[in-house]
Amino acid sequence: MRRVFQLLLSILLIFQIQCVIASDDLYSFYYSGESEFINRFNASLKSYAKAKDIDLEMFDAKNNSSAQLSQIYSSVSSKDPLIINLVDTEQASEIIYHAKSYRNRIVFFNRKPSDDVFKKYDRVWYVGTNSAAAGKYQAELISDYIELTKNVDRNRNGVLDIIILQGEKDHGDTTGRSSEILKQLSDKKVKYKVLSQNFDDWDTQTAFNDVKTLASKVGLKNIDMIIANNDAMAVGAVDFLNTQGYNLGTDSKDKTKYIPVFGVDGIPEAIEYIRQEKMTGTVFADFSALAKASVDIALDDSLDDEVLTRKIWYKITDRKVLIPFVKYSSFKSYFKKYR
To answer: What is the distance between the alpha carbons of residues 145 and 158, in angstroms, rounded to a whole number?
Structure first.
């Protein structure tokens, strides 16, 4: 009897050790490794995982939803937690269906599936940013810029002629950022006219071509401002303007050849352009905070919002956490406000 007890105890200890080992493994899945936003997040994720001695394995779907499903299906049987940046948010339910039998904890990152997904499985969370807040903060940057410079109406027609460079069609961030920026401008009594509002799919070159096409139609003198849903597209806009002798930054001899450009994300190229005064401003979330929240939720054993909120220091509501934004510009320092 004693030997049986010892054997059962040994089996239990082995099982516990295996569980601990499993909890120290983490899989992350990205829609595209070519995204600068994803690269920044991944760098923060790797750094935080290393500090916590977590084995991290990463997968790049290269914007192929079928490839991503295959990558995820090959990993769910490990029972380890998954951090997923979806190629197609419509496939979230299918992923949940396969993960439920293995009880994987899943953290969807940056691309939020529908609320129905959260009702189907109690071990799924979302970590991201507030799309509307990005538009709100962009509008605050623009309002501050208008107040400080007084000369944004370049063609003196009494309205702010703007280009909006949008992300993917039907993407939550595209819809949230674009609609909120226009709402905020209206609330701030800014008279504006949208010259174009095309979908440039978060891509630098696509945005470059978009601004080039519009400039050939209306002329650069009739463009007062460019507002992009992300920094990659803002960088594309600045790159085109540079080819026309505009937005050359601190070395420019003609300061009138400047069209303010605003973005979202705080990618290195955009920050550098802002420092060089080629680009006007951006808003961004703390990548390290995004990574920390994703990892801490994925590896924890709690299912309670309040318990997890106390652990990660960010408010979780209905298993969703939104990391706040910070403003950064070439014309005003905002950092003291957020320290």
So the answer is: 17
- 236 within domain boundaries: yes
Report the half-sphere exposure of 273 (CA within 13 A, side-chain side): 28
pLDDT digits (tens, 9 = 90+) for 91-127: 999 999 988 889 999 999 999 999 999 999 999 999 9
Instruction: Label residue 18 exposed, middle or buried (CB < 10 Å: 0-12, 13-18, 19+).
Output: exposed
Which residue segment(s) compose the domain that 199 sits in?
Answer: 132-285+329-338
Q: Are residues 176 and 235 in the same domain?
A: yes
Cβ-Cβ contacts under 8 Å for 234 (sequence gap 6 or more) = 165, 207, 226, 228, 261, 262, 263, 270, 279, 282
Domain count, the chain: 2
Q: Residue 55: left if φ>0, alpha if ψ -120 to 50, beta else—which one?
A: beta
Listed residue (191, 199, 195) closest to 162, CA to CA: 195
Pairwise CA distance, residues 204 & 186, whole Å: 28
pTM to 2 decimals?
Answer: 0.75
My answer on whether 104 and 39 are in the same domain is yes
Whether 32 and 167 map to the same domain: the answer is no
- 207-214's contacts with Cβ under 8 Å and 24+ in sequence apart are 207/165, 207/232, 207/233, 207/234, 207/235, 207/236, 207/237, 208/236, 208/237, 208/239, 208/240, 210/163, 210/165, 210/236, 211/163, 211/165, 211/236, 211/237, 211/240, 211/241, 212/240, 214/163
Asked whether residue 86 falls in the same domain as residue 221, the answer is no
